[in-house]
């Protein structure tokens, strides 16, 4: 049986007041006698009235200006995903007055991030979506937006100290634990494991610190910390010869190296090096379904990938802003996306399905 839609007119009739009075009570504007206000509110509750916010938004002339502050994909193809997600959300929400402007920065240069973030203050803003990969440099902007009552949503990197409207992405700590569990399967005891960070200042990358912490704590919690030796490596993929020299030294100095955990989307860099040198006994676990990662997953050089759903991060980030500002919905502080384990055998399922 279909529920009857409760209209403002129905409330007015039952309360014996005008529709204008009901409207003033609903929107807390204008003067209404206390006893009349209480009677109207009681009837609103009795009839279980819910405003049609979607229809109201469609009829509104207000423009909601969102800024998407994200790394430029020309420097790292991973960032095509969030950009595509933002664009998809915009297509769905533009009918409600949403505008989205992109502000791109070089993910390997702090100055580029600061310059892009400063550009936001040259225009009127209603909300911001960003990936704060430079932790320290992002904090002053958080303070500014809080002072200006501009809601901001974070994705990819979780920073809760400054109370963003919401965080979209995976639980970095748990993703590190999951990676450890997957890598641990089949590893001989004892052996060495390399934790490989790429193209990041680890002291300024909160998400990578949490991933590494989760990874290490898996072995501690399972009383395996003394069984495996951990090697930490920080690599620059752009410095090709230096990277190869670093990795060569790690392998030569640790003949019992049997597993590599890559904390970013650059697992293909390690896989390409190992394949070129016909090294097939080292298991690799990494992140993201980039074409090069998919290639090495298919040929067996990468054992597992954890899909971070970059499109979904951008998509849901814009929707969280819209839910808060336009549809007046309560927004969850954390929207954790699933930790999808991808193997050669189930890869096609993830490539075929939409990431929202």
From TrEMBL:
Keywords: DNA-binding, Transcription, Transcription regulation. It comes from the Bacteria. The keyword Transcription applies. Gene3D superfamilies: 3.40.50.2300, lambda repressor-like DNA-binding domains. Residues 6-60 form the HTH lacI-type domain. GO terms for molecular function: DNA-binding transcription factor activity; transcription cis-regulatory region binding. This is Substrate-binding domain-containing protein. It comes from Pedobacter puniceum.
């Amino acid at each position: 049986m279909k529920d009857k839609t409760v209209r403002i007119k129905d409330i007015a009739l039952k309360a014996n007041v005008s529709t204008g009075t009901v409207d003033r009570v609903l929107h807390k504007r204008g003067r209404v006698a206390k006893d009349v206000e209480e009677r109207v509110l009681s009837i609103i509750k009795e009839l279980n009235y819910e405003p049609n916010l979607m229809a109201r938004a469609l009829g509104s002339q207000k423009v909601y200006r969102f800024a998407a502050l994200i790394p430029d994909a020309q420097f790292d193809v991973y960032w095509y995903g969030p950009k595509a997600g933002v664009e998809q959300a915009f297509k769905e929400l533009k009918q409600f007055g949403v505008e989205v402007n992109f502000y791109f920065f070089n993910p390997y240069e702090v100055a580029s991030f600061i310059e892009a973030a400063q550009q936001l203050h040259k225009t009127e803003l209603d909300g911001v979506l960003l990936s704060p990969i430079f932790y320290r440099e992002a904090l002053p902007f958080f303070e500014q937006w809080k002072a200006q009552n501009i809601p901001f949503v974070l994705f990819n990197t979780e920073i809760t100290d400054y109370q963003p409207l919401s965080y979209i992405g995976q639980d970095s700590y748990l993703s590190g634990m999951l990676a450890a569990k997957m890598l641990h399967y089949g590893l001989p005891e004892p052996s060495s494991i390399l934790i490989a960070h790429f193209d990041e200042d680890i002291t300024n990358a909160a998400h990578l610190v949490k991933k590494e912490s989760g990874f290490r704590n898996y072995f501690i919690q399972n009383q395996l910390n003394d069984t495996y030796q951990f090697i930490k490596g920080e690599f620059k993929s752009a410095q090709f010869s230096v990277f190869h020299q670093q990795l060569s030294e790690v392998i030569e100095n640790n003949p019992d190296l049997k597993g590599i955990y890559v904390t970013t989307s650059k697992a293909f860099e390690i896989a390409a090096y190992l394949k070129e040198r016909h090294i097939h006994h080292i298991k690799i676990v990494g992140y993201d379904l980039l074409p090069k990662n998919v290639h090495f997953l298919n040929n067996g050089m990468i054992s597992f990938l954890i899909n971070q759903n970059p499109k979904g991060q951008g998509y849901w980030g814009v929707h969280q802003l819209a839910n808060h500002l336009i549809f007046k919905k309560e927004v969850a502080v954390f929207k954790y996306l699933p930790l999808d384990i991808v193997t050669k055998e189930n890869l096609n399922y993830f490539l075929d399905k939409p990431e929202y």
